[in-house]
Amino acid sequence: MNRISVNQPIVELDGDEMAHTMWTLVRDRLITPHVDVPILRFDLSLPNRERTGDKVTLQAAEAVAEHRVGVKCSTITPDAARAAEYGLSRLWPSPNGTLRNVLNGVIFREPVIIDSVPRLVPGWTKPIVIARHAHADQYKAVNFAVPGAGRLTLTYTPDDGSPATSHDVTTFPECGGVALGMYNYTDSIRDFARACFARGLKLGYPVYFSSKNTVLKAYDGHFKDVFDSVYAEEFRSRYQAAGLFYEHRLIDDMVASALKWEGGYVWACKNYDGDVQSDIVAQGFGSPGLMTSVLTTPDGSIQLTEAAHGTIARHHRRREAGEMTSTNPIATIFAWTRGLAHRAALDRNAALADFTVELERATVGTVEQGTMTADLARLVPTGASTVTTEGFIQAVADRFAAAPAGGKMRRLDGHGSE
Ligand SMILES: NC(=O)c1ccc[n+]([C@@H]2O[C@H](COP(=O)([O-])OP(=O)(O)OC[C@H]3O[C@@H](n4cnc5c(N)ncnc54)[C@H](O)[C@@H]3O)[C@@H](O)[C@H]2O)c1
């Protein structure tokens, strides 16, 4: 069979445990038999991060920045227990955090929708794409316990020598309490807004940004103002031409609306909101095995795709003990197809774009025809046949091989036929 020729490389970031097992199976059985693409491989498994003093993560990030397309397997973010398990010299940082910082990227979480798999929220018939502003706020805040009575102030001292301004926060009574000092940067908010609007345009989705600007008038008000100005100055005309829109909503109103709406939008969340909402949305769509994740730069030109789930350590241990598992590889398959679709869009490679659409269709079709992994079979009322991970990947390969060659959808931008 002729393989599709791709001249420009993609960067592969391999990872750990069960995610690595699925990664290898998907690459070797579904991707490389059909696509002849130069793959620059970086081994981000925890043992290799330890061996290289985590230099491999930086090298991988630089390669993604250079070649603009990366596909990433899930990796362990070590805690004390992992450090003991792997004999680490230190707690290496989260590779995703390093990649996000080097690429100055925003992460979008997007579910794969399969009509025949019931969702916890049945009304969600289209993807809800969650964007989390993964910078500062609570995650870089100074917080401390206040032991007793005293005054709390916040002081800003300008670098230009002009007078400092001080704000009284509260006067604590004898019982003391807790306090928090939190911040964000205008440039970071602006880049986040740009990335969200660029993603909305690419997917053909409207964008909502949620905040609590009625309470945090200056803090969240600034976020809202930045979103408004980026939209007005850089995106409004393109959104109107595409029949799309942008709206700010209060977070409480947005949460309630999201439950009622069918999906089909980008939800730009502040850092903490995104942390919470991405897990609610992942659960609402059924299984972590259906949730993909894309890290993009503010201008959308660089993309790093991955499955949103972790390394699924529990299944890995069962495999090590000689058992087979029925772990869902769909998000891994989509990490590869979405990465290759970006390569196809950059290179205007129609054959590669067709391949990504066809492979996604074969994957979804396999589930719809009744063959699925255990996590999905649990959700389907009747008639599902549960297969192992290998069995599912083979079923997708068979379905793909049997698909008619003609009538393929073109996907040079966005997600084509979905
Ligand atoms: N993007 C990443 O690289 C990433 C993200 C999250 C966690 N992690 C890492 O993964 C490791 C394990 O984390 P965890 O156990 O909290 O999360 P996890 O996502 O690996 O697994 C949690 C549970 O979700 C279910 N699950 C997840 N993916 C599934 C799939 N594809 N098919 C079927 N069931 C699935 C399983 O029941 C599993 O036990 C940790 O070391 C963590 O640091 C990495």
Compact description:
The protein has 418 residues and is α/β, with parallel strands linked by helices.
Q: What does this molecule look like?
A:
With 418 residues, the protein is of the alpha/beta class. It folds into 3 domains: 1-109 and 302-418, 3-Layer(aba) Sandwich (Isopropylmalate Dehydrogenase), CATH 3.40.718; 119-141 and 184-285, Isopropylmalate Dehydrogenase; 143-180, no CATH class. The chain is built from 14 helices and 18 strands. The strands form 5 sheets. The protein has a 10-stranded mixed β-sheet, with helices on both faces. The protein has a two-stranded parallel ribbon with strand order 1-3. Strand 12, helix 7 and strand 13 (246-250) form a beta-alpha-beta unit. The radius of gyration is 23 Å and the shape is globular. It starts with a strand and ends in a 16-residue tail after the last helix. Bound molecules: nicotinamide-adenine-dinucleotide.
Give me the CATH architecture of the largest domain, please.
Answer: 3-Layer(aba) Sandwich
Question: Biggest β-sheet, characterized?
Answer: 10 strands, mixed
Q: Which structural category fits the helices and strands?
A: alpha/beta
- Runs in which pLDDT lies below 50 for 5 or more consecutive residues are 406-418
CATH class of the largest domain, named Alpha Beta
Q: Which percent band covers the strand fraction?
A: 15-25%
CATH topology of the largest domain: Isopropylmalate Dehydrogenase
Percent of residues in helical segments?
Answer: 40-55%
What Rg do the Cα atoms give?
Answer: 23 Å
Give the count of helical stretches. 14
Q: How many strand segments? A: 18
As laid out across the biggest beta sheet, the strand order is 4-2-5-16-15-6-7-14-12-13
The CA-CA distance between the termini, in Å, is 27 Å
Cofactors, ions and other ligands in the entry:
nicotinamide-adenine-dinucleotide
CATH homologous superfamily caption of the largest domain: Isopropylmalate Dehydrogenase
Give the total of domains. 3
Q: On the 0-100 scale, what is the average pLDDT?
A: 94
Q: How would you sum up the global shape?
A: globular
